[in-house]
Amino acid sequence: MEKKIDHIGIAVRDMESSINFYVNVLGGTLIDRYVSEAVGVESEVTILEVNGDRIELLAPTNNHTSPIARFIKQKGKGVHHIAYRVENLDTALVELEQQGIRVLAETLRTNKHGRRLIYLNPADTEGTIIEYCDYPDVT
């Protein structure tokens, strides 16, 4: 199955400063900004487009339970994950299982933009956090 980079997730401490950098220095365009308090997310999300490429800025809203807060505490701010768009997430999950690649089942969800997503187990991806996603209801 073909995979294409959908977006890059960046963990940030200061959303306003980060938006300023991506808009005023890199020439990005603000697409959306929202807060997700869903369990296992607990983050402010800002979506930007820089010359046709999508960037998600992620700032924790709960420093005790947010995975972004945990990431920043362990590794510091910076690239959090790379998301690959697949044609069909269900088919991609079957392929991953056949290849012996585990996923983090509790991360399976649909976001406010209709993107279905799941994270692969970093133990099987050489330590990189990888998201697979599709947009089943978006044409």
Descriptive keywords:
139 residues; alpha+beta; 2,3-Dihydroxybiphenyl 1,2-Dioxygenase, domain 1; eight-stranded mixed beta sheet; 3 helices; 22% helix
Write up this protein.
This protein is an alpha+beta fold. It is built from three helices and eight strands, in the order βαβββαβαβββ. Strands 2-3-4-1-5-8-7-6 form an eight-stranded mixed β-sheet. Strand 3 and strand 4 form a beta hairpin. It is globular, with a radius of gyration of 15 Å. Belongs to the methylmalonyl-CoA epimerase family. Keywords: Metal-binding. GO terms for molecular function: metal ion binding; methylmalonyl-CoA epimerase activity.
SSE arrangement:
Elements: E1 3-11, H1 15-25, E2 29-36, E3 43-50, E4 53-60, H2 67-75, E5 78-86, H3 89-98, E6 103-110, E7 116-120, E8 130-134
Parallel strand pairs: 1-4, 5-8
Antiparallel strand pairs: 1-5, 2-3, 3-4, 6-7, 7-8
Strand order in space, largest sheet: 2-3-4-1-5-8-7-6
Low-confidence stretches: none
The rounded Rg comes to 15 Å
What is the tally of beta strands? 8
Structural class: alpha+beta
Integer count of domains: 1
CATH-level-2 architecture: Roll
Name the CATH class: Alpha Beta
> CATH homologous superfamily, by name?
2,3-Dihydroxybiphenyl 1,2-Dioxygenase, domain 1
Question: According to CATH, what is the topology?
Answer: 2,3-Dihydroxybiphenyl 1,2-Dioxygenase, domain 1
Number of helices: 3
Strand content: 35-45%
Distance between the termini: 19 Å
Tell me about the largest β-sheet.
Answer: 8 strands, mixed
